[in-house]
Amino acid sequence: MKIVRLFNEVLENYQFKIADPESAEKLTEFWKQSFEEAYHDIHSATDILAYSARNFTNEAATRLLSDDNCTCTFAMKAGKVVGLSVIIKNDCPGRSHLAASELKQLYLLSSEYGTGLGKAMMEDSIRKTRESGSSHLWLCVSNLNFRAFRFYQKFGFTKIGNGPMLEVGLDRLLSSIMIREV
């Protein structure tokens, strides 16, 4: 992994690193842990396990990390992955005329909530999107993930429409598409 840079003094304990295909196992482990922490109060343990087994595999991680249109950044603290952002060059649904990238994932371990890490990761994602030549950053968020929805609004994302139905085990969730200019 290549170290990108340290952020401001408040975040001096964190390093941001670009993940590569050799990081697939770390990514798989982080996906499972962060997803369970974020959704344990919304979905049953059975539904979370089913979703994780289907979506968070080493094969899926290797595919993602091998995609030239994807940038996966780990936030590291004391050698452990505590945050993740995934940006993919991808047209925004209903806005294909825009040069856009998708913020596919921005996950933190719950232990890092309130530390400023989420803000730093979002700022890094916006910077990387701008540097890639995209003019807009968009995302899809579950309508039940109120914490994430408020977080994205603080960064100027606005809802532009309904997203796809998200399936977590037997649960079916409505989602929203949000976008912002970078």
Main sheet makeup? 8 strands, mixed
Pairing-aware structural class of the strands and helices?
alpha+beta
Kindly state the percentage of residues in helix.
25-40%
Annotation field: number of helices: 5
Radius of gyration: 16 Å
Mean pLDDT: 91
Describe the strand arrangement of the main beta sheet, using strand numbers: 1-2-3-4-5-6-10-7
Q: Could you spell the SSE succession in H and E letters? A: EEHHHEEEHEHEEEE
* Distance N to C terminus: 26 Å
Shape estimate? globular
Instruction: List low-pLDDT spans.
Output: 1-10
What's the topology here?
Elements lengths: L1 E4 L8 E5 L5 H16 L5 H11 L2 H9 L3 E8 L2 E10 L10 E9 L8 H15 L4 E7 L3 H9 L3 E5 L3 E3 L2 E3 L1 E7 L1
Parallel strand pairs: 5-6
Antiparallel strand pairs: 1-2, 2-3, 3-4, 4-5, 6-10, 7-10, 8-9
What does this structure look like?
The protein contains five helices and ten strands; from the N terminus they run E-E-H-H-H-E-E-E-H-E-H-E-E-E-E. By secondary structure, it is α+β, with helices and mostly antiparallel strands. It has an eight-stranded mixed β-sheet, sandwiched between helices. Helix 1 (24-39) packs antiparallel against helix 2 (45-55) and helix 1 packs across helix 3. The model is unreliable at 1-10 (pLDDT under 50).
